[in-house]
Amino acid sequence: MTNSAQKPKTLWAWTAATALGVGFGKPGPGTWGSVAAVLIWFAVGAFSHLSRASMAWGTLAAAIIVTLIGIPAATRVEQECGRQDPGFVVLDEVAGQWLTLVACPVEWRHALLGLLLFRLFDIVKPWPVRRLERLPGGTGIMLDDVAAGLLGLVVMQLVLHWW
Question: Which Pfam families match (predicted)?
Fold first, then answer.
């Protein structure tokens, strides 16, 4: 027997939280979210001809905006699907990935290293990343990846300085 009385879904929240549906990619929706974020960042950097400073400020602004949208969107989606931190919510990966890339030159090797660093910190969740994951609703969903992105940013800048 099918349940015809499914909970309605809030379109804006599901569209945002899944990064326009990228979160439904299999396997590893979080990785797909990160790859999409890197590809967008790289395309904007390669085709916009922005200065490095403008690209950095734009990336930071985009990460902040995505985080501010992501907190209520992820909260709503979590409530509507009845699952805590559902894997298909990947806007957190987008925000965290962009934070890792904030001050990077737009080159494929930096994009790849940024992807690997962010995914490492997002999966391993060193302190304080894991602690932030415990925050309620969309706040925890988003802020653990923001912290992973900031750790990725620090390591990326150290690599760029010494490499």
Answer: PgpA
